[in-house]
Write a structure and sequence with these properties.
Blueprint (H helix, E strand, L loop, with lengths): L21 H4 L1 H15 L15 E2 L4 E2 L1 H16 L24 H13 L3 H33 L3 H17 L5 H10 L3 H15 L16 H9 L2 H4 L1 H15 L1
Antiparallel strand pairs: 1-2
Helix pairs in contact: 5-8, 6-7, 6-8, 9-11
Amino acid sequence: MDDNNQPSESGLLDNVTAEDNQAQTNPSATEISHKASSIDDDDSPLERPDWWPENFWKKEDAEPDLEAIAKSWGDLRKQISQGKHKAPADGKYDTSVFGGIPENDPVRETVMSWAQEFGVSQLALDRLVGQVVERTGQHQQQMSFNREAELKELGPNANAMINSMTEWGRGLVNKGIWGADDFEEFKVMGGTAKGIKALAKLRETYEGTKIPTNSVPISGAPSKEELYGMVNDPKYKTDPAYRQKVERMFQQTFG
């Protein structure tokens, strides 16, 4: 003891206790722990930072699309390694993207002249032509679908009726009643089921005879309802032999 009767320290660990109370005595540690807990308990969706590309952000999941950005980076490296990020030095582009479009096609020639004149990169050419070819194919499919719809509106005797009207128009040209321009207009008018029907009425008035639009089924042949039932059979789509058989029946029944 010293002169003031106070106990003196006997070692460096005199003030240490068996329990760790640092978190309680250190305000900064308590604050950090509280912030970490708040972050863990926050379930609100993340917002895309302004500097993160929108096309690499999953809106539904509210998180970055790391897989997409990695793939994009890989594609970019591949394009650079192949030199597609710039125009060919010799001006000779890879034209495989045109597919089966012939070299003398006017649109193809125009696109290639444009690419060479402005030094368009191979990648830009591929993307432009690829999109045009794809949309052209979709347009052709739509046209095919419309044709099927028009044939259906004419009925089961559609092809025979179209052929008959075509021969009638050619006959008018051969007789000198129509010229080449008239026949072209005739083709435009007959481009739809309603147009064919209107021309058929005109023909009936001109010739004074009724043009049959529905053939009479052959005796003993399947009825119209039975034939359409055969078309709806799944085998019509999967069995070529069955499909040919049904088509022959249609031909025999309706011409």
